[in-house]
Amino acid sequence: MHVNNFLNKTHDEAIHFLDVIMDQNRFEVTVKQKPVDLTFTEFKLLEYLICHADRAVSREELLKEIWAIPESIETRATDDMVKRLRKKLKAANADAMIVTVRGFGFMIAKNHHPKLADAQIIVPAHELHKTIDYICSNAQNNHSAATIKIKKLNDQYIIDILA
């Protein structure tokens, strides 16, 4: 997926992703030019996903960046917030949707589940094997093939998935 086709930033500090427009100065969101009522945290979560629309974002990263919660704490905060945000985007008939990357986290995408192709995932070292297993089983279930490139960066791994 080429994010530049969907994501644009204007001079007035508005972020556009498909038909979702986020005014960062006013903390307002519109879909198809109609306002969508979001809490401050919902706004920050949607903003983070849109700004990182070129990759899947882990639950741990969201906990750290949105809630400032250490990775070691178990919580359903991200899942609960994503569920509420999905409902609001669906009610607004948005072209954008939040998809789950099973066992990892979330990503924002055009209104269909993205294929695991031409994507980049950043995972902590302890999640590497589980993530690779998921990618391989997904490719096998879809009768497709992909090239996986893995790079180590500090205590994380960057996984590039190429069709």
Radius of gyration: 16 Å
Report the sheet-strand fraction: 25-35%
Identify the strand order in the major beta sheet. 7-8-6-9-11-10
Outline the biggest β-sheet.
6 strands, mixed
Large-scale geometry: globular
Strand runs, count: 11
CATH level 1 class label of the largest domain: Mainly Alpha
Which CATH architecture of the largest domain would you pick?
Answer: Orthogonal Bundle
Q: Ranges with pLDDT <50 over ≥5 residues?
A: 1-7
Order of helices and strands: EEEEEHEHHEEEHEE
Which fold name corresponds to the CATH topology of the largest domain?
Arc Repressor Mutant, subunit A
CATH superfamily of the largest domain: Winged helix-like DNA-binding domain superfamily/Winged helix DNA-binding domain
Q: Helix coverage percent of residues?
A: 25-40%
**Terminal Cα span:** 11 Å
Q: Please, how many helices?
A: 4
Pfam families: Trans_reg_C
Keywords: DNA-binding, Phosphoprotein, Transcription, Transcription regulation, Two-component regulatory system
InterPro entries: OmpR/PhoB-type_DNA-bd, Sig_transdc_resp-reg_C-effctor, WalR-like, WH-like_DNA-bd_sf
Protein name: Winged helix-turn-helix transcriptional regulator
